[in-house]
Specification:
Length: 277
């Protein structure tokens, strides 16, 4: 029986760092891989966790925008653990409201990280999920808010239970192209780059869960999207009502759903409750 292992992306600060500590405090029995794209910041976060007495945490570099780092992580997990038990895709970014970059540029950069980067990590790591694995894609309630601001036609596409990954990717590209031309709102898109990328993450999660149910029905794998809430982080600012520790509660809850649980699966969850998409 190979040792259990959990991976948390974007874990050197904020919600990701709180998730690592939350797994430790919940008594996760395997190793926890704290990943970050910046090795210096990742190692500093690792030392902080170890100083708090959590010795089952390791650092591994992972950059969502560099596919080779995801492939290296997969090899590391296969060689040392025979696969992966828990994946929490937390890494993401957002431009500040005061950002001066053109909206089209903001849309492209945010999409590359939040949607395409998350997808790249999933493509590398979902194939090595062990039976009873748990996957948590950190989305946002802003995805639901942004969905509600889409045209009825786009809403229908994003809510279609048979939408494919290829179709979703095409829609994400359409948004960026429209944002770069400046006619995204005229074409039915919301005026939120971050929100639209998180629509992508939520819908991707629904697709991934459906595929797992079709291809690995007997393995008991559960995959969900979640919203940590509005959390005081570098990204969300210091006026948010939740602490990082409070933001980590739902991701940790989903990551530690007990063996034998049949749900939630393919859902958008916040405050540990399933919300309609």
């Amino acid at each position: 029986m190979s040792k259990k292992v959990a991976v948390v992306t974007g874990a050197n600060k904020g919600i990701g760092f709180a998730i690592v500590k939350g797994l430790c405090k919940a008594g996760y029995t395997g190793d926890i891989i704290l990943t970050a794209r910046n090795e210096k910041l990742g190692q500093e976060a690792l030392q902080q966790v170890k100083a708090e007495g959590h010795q089952n945490v390791l650092y591994h570099r992972l950059d969502l925008c560099d596919q080779s780092t995801a492939e290296e992580l997969r090899k590391f997990l296969e060689n040392n653990y025979g696969g992966l038990d828990v994946l929490i895709n937390n890494a993401g970014m957002a431009f500040k409201v005061s950002a001066t970059e053109p909206f089209g540029e903001q849309a492209d950069v945010t999409m590359q990280t939040n949607y395409w980067g998350t997808l790249a990590v999933c493509k590398a790591l979902l194939p090595i999920l062990k039976p009873k694995a748990r996957v948590v894609n950190v989305s946002s309630f802003v995805s639901k808010r942004s969905l509600d601001k889409c045209s009825p036609e786009l809403q229908a596409k994003f809510r279609n239970s048979d939408i494919t990954e290829e179709e979703l990717g095409g829609l994400m590209k359409d948004f960026v192209q429209a944002a770069q031309k400046g006619d995204h709102e005229a074409k039915g898109w919301p005026n939120s780059a971050y929100g639209t990328t998180k629509i992508g993450v939520t819908v991707l999660s629904r697709i991934q869960a459906r595929v797992l149910s079709q291809t690995r029905a007997s393995d008991g794998i559960l995959l969900n999207a979640c919203c940590p809430g509005w959390v005081r982080t570098d990204m969300a600012g210091d006026k948010a009502p939740k602490s990082p520790e409070e933001g980590a509660e739902t991701p940790v809850y989903l990551a530690l759903l007990p063996d034998g649980a049949t749900g939630p699966h393919g859902q958008l969850v916040w405050d540990k409750e399933v919300h309609e998409w």
